[in-house]
Design a protein that fits this description.
Number of helices: 9
Number of domains: 1
CATH class: Alpha Beta
Radius of gyration: 18 Å
Structural class: alpha/beta
CATH topology: pyruvate-formate lyase- activating enzyme
Helix content: 25-40%
Oligomer: single chain
Number of strands: 8
């Protein structure tokens, strides 16, 4: 995971300050640039982690994660892509996360220009909710229309799309996750990531949680919501994540959940019970 020092319109005043209510000071990333780590240093750290799990020749995905990596300009991303292209033998896939409202023709063209240097180029869009009113509630200030427009641009350039969803946002109905999945399918998204709403330190959500003004999903609710959503997916859509996690030093709630592996197992069992009851 790479932090290339970009920003977000919800932090610099373009659309808001302080970020979305659930986003921490590291932009849902590593905070590497805040710690003044160069891209080369981040690469070496990531490579060491990969080698621990794949000692006999690592192959990895270079994930440019923190903040919105096509905002406010494309120069940091262009420099990062050039650096990573030199290591495509180890990381043959590059994936770039951004907001739909920060993705235009130039960004799509830049990513597409690296399709011949990597085996695949992915762009990860945060959908998070299919309800524009919830966008306002969480202080995100993006729209469903922007999401579909960004997906259209990505398709035009032959990029792979991964859609991020969040279950359990304040004010969202229990059908909210299914609605997000339906929009992801309609957009032609190639992959999807599921996340539960988490309370992290140094977020607006932390203040709301500490005041007792936040109802978080119970484990059983999340398992059922994701399992139901999985039944909607076309067979060709790749599931990149079933549940999110954060380091203990930044994570606050929901409390008393089991490990990510255990939650994934519960989701898979629930899904099998839905599609093949009695087996």
């Amino acid at each position: 995971m790479f932090d290339i020092g970009t920003s977000c319109p919800n932090r610099d005043g373009q659309t808001g300050f302080g970020g979305c209510i659930y986003c921490d000071i590291d932009g849902s990333g590593t905070g590497a640039r805040r710690k003044e780590k160069s891209l080369a240093e981040q690469w070496e750290e990531g490579l060491r982690r990969v080698r621990r799990s794949q000692p006999n020749g690592p192959a990895a995905i270079a994930y440019v994660q923190s903040y919105s990596n096509t905002y406010p300009d494309l120069l940091p991303l262009a420099k990062a892509l050039e650096f990573l292209a030199n290591h495509a033998d180890i990381a043959p896939i590059v994936s770039v996360g951004t907001r739909p409202d920060c993705f235009g023709e130039e960004a799509a063209a830049l990513l597409a220009s690296y399709c011949d240097k990597f085996s695949e180029v992915w762009v990860e869009f945060g959908l998070e909710t299919a309800d524009d009113e919830i966008q306002k509630t969480i202080g995100r200030h993006d729209t469903l229309a922007n999401y579909h427009a960004a997906c259209h641009l990505a398709h035009k350039q032959g990029l792979k799309i991964i859609t991020h969803t969040i279950a359990g946002l304040p004010g969202e109905k229990m059908t909210g996750l299914e609605l997000q999945v339906q929009e992801a399918i309609q957009s032609g998204s190639h992959g999807i990531k599921f996340h539960q709403l988490m309370v992290l330190r140094k977020t607006k959500l932390e203040a709301l949680w500490r005041k007792g003004g936040l109802d978080l999903l119970q484990l059983e609710e999340y398992v059922e919501m994701v399992a139901n959503a999985l039944t909607l997916l076309p067979s060709e859509m790749v599931i990149h994540r079933l549940v999110a996690e954060n380091p203990p030093e930044s994570y606050l709630a929901p409390e008393d959940w089991p490990t990510r592996a255990k939650v994934q197992d519960l989701i898979e069992k629930k899904y099998r019970a839905l599609v093949a009851p009695g087996t």
